[in-house]
Design a protein that fits this description.
single chain, alpha+beta, Flavocytochrome C3, Chain A, domain 1, five-stranded mixed beta sheet, 18% strand
Length: 537
């Protein structure tokens, strides 16, 4: 069993810092929620690197919200529910589509500058959206613009204290209530940060896989520390593999935004044949899980490691203006988006599941909240609709602060934590362990899964469990422990769900089975797998 805490400590012997709201992580969820909290509270914000290092920074497509006269919340809701493949919470989706526009206004008031045409928002369309409702900034640099605006405001806010380059090892709980976090400073010291409310904004776990669009900080920390603290983990078998990440020697798996296909780009196999008509009537704008599997099928059929995305029908100046970031990045590797077919392949991109929350972002652990990709609010179901992630972060960030307003201050009690004596050092270098885990996840828990592969994956992952009995002191050791925790949860959930739905595809159970499996998979550290169900389908 995974232990309650990763390290030994005596809480009474640690330095203690008191704050009202502790925000763990940056990105749109952390920055936005910290700014909303700071309107009333003192906030301590902890980042693994800096305010600028997060998944949000790499978000290209944009943010989905109803702003056009020919659009409606009902239409946005229908698109979200269809993409979610029967596992969305209708009440959570209603919250998203009705409160999203107000969240966008908040972003604008905080300094975000979205692209405009003729005095109105320049809207684009992405896969599985029935309307043009995606707001974007600087063409294809929406995330970078949001991070720029919010981080600038955060640095200027006297109620927010930012701790860069710190690491939250674990959450401290007492009688089912979160009291704050155990934090490691850059020089290796441990500090107990006590807080009236703790908000996890730690993003996803793309580093579980060998190929990912996520930065190196996306190691599933929030899910793992919440799991150890007693929160419930929901639907983590649903991993979104972005269909079109650059696949070129020497280049990272750079995202080629879905908006490129939204503007008319087509997919071709290595023989030059357009193939999506074989797989879905929406062609290149089918839901991401369908496009990703179609690409993998074509790669297997043609014995290739990639397919092409073809945007050459568009004029060069239009490509440069609409997708300047993608154009310039590809150009550094000798690829011209306006005249070359760009080699792409699926890469791990987003987790639909995560730490289960209610409609105000609160987990089963009192005073512990989760916001953004780390959370499972019920909005995304089995497959996230494109550009709903940024919307979710601002909508539920606002709701978390509303809930915090109702909390009484944390009692200033002192608890003495029990701790085990860990003395054995880790033997195999962590970098080797991480690479082995990433390859294992890609092979057995990737786009296509089988019982045999998942069982083998689970066995191999469990061989790594002895790391929890070692004396961990370094950040990379904590990160690997968190990755291993997430990997085990995902593999177990994928093995349990004997059907195919959204971002989870079983070759041995290729059909969706609503009669048995239209329900959530939920895991508890103490009680294992719990039976979930859908209340409002």
């Amino acid at each position: 069993m995974i232990p309650r805490y990763l390290v030994d400590f005596n809480l009474n012997e640690l330095p203690r810092v008191r704050t009202e709201v502790l925000v763990i992580g940056a990105g749109i969820a952390g920055l936005f929620t910290a700014l909303k909290a700071a309107e009333r509270y003192k906030v301590t914000m902890i980042t693994k690197k800096t305010l600028l290092d997060s998944n949000t920074r790499y978000a290209q497509g944009g943010i989905a919200a109803v702003t056009a006269p020919d659009d409606s919340p009902a239409c946005h809701s229908q698109d979200t529910l269809l993409a979610g493949a029967g596992l969305c919470s209708r009440s959570a989706v209603d919250v998203l589509v009705h409160e999203g526009p107000a969240g966008v206004k908040d972003l604008i008031s905080m300094g975000t500058q979205f692209d405009q045409e003729h005095g109105t928002f320049a809207l684009t369309k992405e896969g599985a959206h029935s309307r043009r409702r995606i707001l974007h900034a600087n063409g294809d640099a929406t995330g970078a613009e949001i991070v720029r605006a919010l981080s600038t405001r955060t640095k200027q806010d006297n109620n927010i204290e930012v701790w860069d380059d710190h690491f939250v090892i674990d959450l401290i709980t007492d009688s089912g209530e979160c009291m704050g976090g155990l934090v490691q400073t850059p020089n290796g010291r441990m500090i107990f940060v006590q807080a009236d409310a703790t908000i996890l904004c730690t993003g996803g776990a793309g580093q579980l896989f060998r190929y990912t669009t996520n930065p190196d900080i996306a190691t599933g920390d929030g899910i793992a520390i919440a799991y150890r603290a007693g929160a419930l983990i929901q639907d983590v078998e649903f991993i979104q593999f972005h269909p079109t990440a650059l696949c070129y020697p020497g280049a990272p798996r750079f995202l080629i935004s879905e908006a490129v296909r939204g503007e008319g780009a087509v997919l071709r196999n290595i023989h030059g044949h357009r193939f999506m008509e074989k797989y879905h009537p929406l062609l290149e704008l089918a839901p991401r899980d369908i496009v990703a599997r179609a690409i993998v099928d074509e790669m297997e059929e043609t014995k290739s490691t990639f397919v092409y995305i073809d945007f050459t029908h568009e004029a060069e100046h239009t490509v440069k203006q609409r997708f300047p970031t993608i154009y310039e990045f590809c150009l550094t590797y000798g690829l011209d988006l306006s005249s070359d077919w760009i080699p792409v392949a699926p890469a791990a991109h987003y987790m639909m599941g995560g730490v289960r929350t209610d409609l105000h972002g609160e987990t089963e652990v009192r005073r512990l909240f989760a916001c953004g990709e780390v959370s499972s609010t019920g909005v995304h179901g089995a497959n996230r609709l494109a550009s709903n992630s940024l919307s979710e972060a601002i909508v539920f960030g606002r709701r978390i602060i509303d809930r915090i307003h109702q909390l009484a201050p944390l009692a200033r009690r002192i608890c003495i934590m029990d701790y085990e004596a860990r003395t054995e050092p880790a033997r195999q270098p962590i970098v080797e362990k991480k690479l082995k885990l990433q390859k294992l996840m890609l092979r057995h828990v990737g786009v296509k899964r089988t019982a045999k592969g998942l069982q083998q994956g689970c066995r191999e992952l469990r061989r790594q469990l002895p790391i929890f009995s070692t004396c961990m002191t370094k950040r990379e050791e904590y990160e690997f422990a968190n990755l291993l925790t997430c990997a085990l949860l995902i593999a177990d959930a994928a093995l349990l769900r004997e059907e195919s739905r959204g971002g989870h595809y079983r070759e041995d159970f290729p059909e969706k089975n609503d009669l048995i499996w239209q329900k959530h998979t939920v895991f508890s550290r103490e009680h294992g797998a719990l039976g979930g169900r859908i209340e409002d389908v």
